[in-house]
Specification:
InterPro entries: DctP_fam, TRAP_DctP_sf
Order of helices and strands: HEHEHEHHEEEHEHEHEEHHEHHH
Protein name: C4-dicarboxylate ABC transporter substrate-binding protein
Helix content: 40-55%
Number of strands: 11
CATH superfamily of the domain at 3-147 and 233-277 and 312-356: Bacterial extracellular solute-binding protein, family 7
Largest sheet: 6 strands, mixed
Organism: Martelella lutilitoris
CATH topology of the domain at 3-147 and 233-277 and 312-356: D-Maltodextrin-Binding Protein, domain 2
CATH class of the domain at 3-147 and 233-277 and 312-356: Alpha Beta
Signal peptide: 1-24
CATH architecture of the domain at 3-147 and 233-277 and 312-356: 3-Layer(aba) Sandwich
Radius of gyration: 21 Å
Mean pLDDT: 94
Number of helices: 13
Pfam families: DctP (PF03480)
């Protein structure tokens, strides 16, 4: 039995079970992460929002990664195993090339909420992106962002010269370019393999969120954390509806789910970029790990490279890249004005973007 057939069989079992449920429509939701992960946290809020917005007419059943993992999410949505799932477009680069353009601009990321809001508007209004989702049988309902990536290493990095010869796990092409610019060697391994690779000396560190100190227990093996801003991970499709599910909903139901997503998108960024980094900072204070403020010349050189990289990639990728950078500028100004309160930011996003969506045709 191939992968598609396996998911189809699983979907049939789930659908038969659903037929015995009460009159409320129960949507099968897949965050792709365990309960400790920020994605699971946002899906708990998403399910609550759906029930509240629909007056209990729709509810959400959260399925764990043992049922559907992130690499399986596309198949699960296409076969109907899940109704909405957490899709990371960079996992499917050949299918989501235009959507992924925003990921190649990772080094522009300095404000997590602004990056999430820019990605949300980009995904909802970029016509080629919408076509990519439709072709895959999916509907985009917004994005979130990590905090700004720093260096987590087994030896200190204070200057640019300290990076020379180091082997660093990379979170994608922009991070690889950053590492190579400073004489380091990027190593492409899964984030879940970082602990073992660092502990065995296969790599000297990682370009990552400080949340990884807790999520992947890097706090047990890291020696140093260098606070040099590198970029963000923001190319997410937090609540991706299966197109068949979406078509089966009334316009009112789509709007109820859309508004549930509009608020819950900010729960991911708040959790990933603010709550958990704060917890990581507290945990660091109880260890011997050195938190390094790098040499000013290194910071200046890093910022200069990031700016040039964004300029180069924008020129290479064309109008969609220009559009995304304009959105980042727009939403950075909004966050500077509004602050980091999730409720206030969600209201602004709803007023500026979601209110203009026609749910009778969106995603169709």
């Amino acid at each position: 039995m191939n992968r598609i057939e396996k998911f189809a069989a699983l979907a049939a079992v789930v659908l038969m079970a659903a037929g015995t449920a009460a009159s409320a429509r129960e949507l099968r939701l897949a965050p792709g992460g365990p309960p400790a992960h920020p994605a699971y946290y946002m899906y708990e809020h998403f399910a609550e929002n759906i029930a509240e917005n629909s007056g209990g007419a729709m509810t959400g059943l959260i399925l764990g990664p043992e049922v559907v993992s992130l690499p399986q999410m596309k198949d699960a949505l296409q076969t109907g195993l899940v109704d909405a799932g957490n899709v990371l477009p960079l996992y499917f680069p050949a299918d989501m090339e235009v959507t992924g353009i925003a990921g190649d601009l990772a080094l522009i990321g300095r404000n997590p909420h602004a990056m999430a809001m820019a990605m949300t508007e980009y995904g909802m209004t970029c016509e080629p992106c919408q076509e990519e989702f439709k072709k895959l049988g999916m509907v985009f309902l917004g994005a979130g962002s990590s905090n700004v990536y720093n260096l987590i290493t087994t030896r200190p990095v204070r200057t640019a010269d300290d990076l020379k010869g180091m082997r660093l796990r990379t979170g994608g092409a922009p991070y690889s370019r950053w590492a190579e610019h400073f004489g380091a060697t990027p190593v492409n391994i899964g984030v879940g393999d970082t602990f073992e690779a660092m502990s065995q000396g296969t790599i000297d560190g990682t370009m990552a969120s400080t949340v990884d100190l807790l999520s992947f227990r890097l706090i047990d093996i890291a020696k140093d954390v260098t606070i040099v801003p590198i970029g963000t991970y923001h190319v997410t499709s937090n609540f991706t509806a299966g197109l068949n599910t979406w078509r089966s909903l009334s316009t009112k139901e789509r709007e109820e789910i859309g508004m549930a997503a509009a608020r819950a998108n900010f729960d991911l960024t708040d959790r990933w970029a603010f709550q958990l980094p704060s917890a990581a900072k507290e945990a660091l204070a109880k260890t011997d790990i050195e938190v390094i403020e790098p040499d000013p010349a290194f910071l200046e050189a890093s910022e200069a490279f990031a700016a040039q990289d964004v300029k180069d990639r924008t020129a290479l990728s064309g109008e969609e890249a220009v559009y995304f950078t304009e959105l980042v500028e727009k939403w950075t100004a909004v966050v500077d004005e509004v602050g980091n309160d999730p409720d206030a930011l969600a209201k602004r996003m709803i007023d500026d973007v979601w209110s203009k969506i026609d749910f009778s045709t969106y995603g169709m």
